[in-house]
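Reopening closed ticket. The problem is back. First fold of the pair:
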Amino acid sequence: MRRNDLDICADILRIAQTGAKKTRIVYQANLNFKIVKKYIVRLIDNGLLDPAGDTRLYTTTNRGWDFLTKYEKLVTPLKSNKEWRRDVHHVRTSPDGVDIGNRLDVKPTWQRNVVDA
């Protein structure tokens, strides 16, 4: 599944919580340097990320922590709902409501012959 801009920003802020150089952000966020630069500039401009001067260490600001907290509150219920929907989608039941799972010996109703029924 593709990540959107908010997911990527949250990933960068999580990585930079204890301080991180650009290389670490690139590898842990699974992005390239060109894309990371764009996101770092955006996060700094919005006060979510702090460049620590000469050390080239980026750290998440208090505002960045607030963003992460709100982001997690918003996304967590959606992730659990998606996982639930994925699990329900894979459950197969017979016409009488019995869970047949992924058994290969049970054919769907439309594939059964008169002899099978």
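Second fold of the pair, where the issue appears:
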Amino acid sequence: MTKNPNVISVGVRLRHVREIMGLSLTEAAGLSVTMRDARQLERSFEAVVLGSYERTDREMPLGRIYDLAALYGVSVEWLMTGAETPETLVSDLVLQLLGLSDVAMAMVFGMVPRMSTQI
């Protein structure tokens, strides 16, 4: 059976946002437990389930799509369509910043210590 290209795109976006956040599947699953306990998610995810969604081996119920968007801090619209909205542009920037090293983050915000000119 041929997979729907729209479903494949959702899986690609899921993997993309997780990797930008610098999370393994296991770490993303752990984050989902923390968010569930904080009542930010309806239910948590297991790493194997997250991986199957990324590979599009498993269908995602609508409620889980909302939870995935909340887990990764993106809009449902972006997750489903890839459409750029003001919210997704801000989310993308935050995710990219989260993926930067401390040195790169300091450079972005101009907080690199100046080298002393004294010898």
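Update: turned out to be a display glitch only; the data is intact. Residues 41 and 96 are 23 Å apart (CA to CA). The chain has one domain: 5-108. Please close again.
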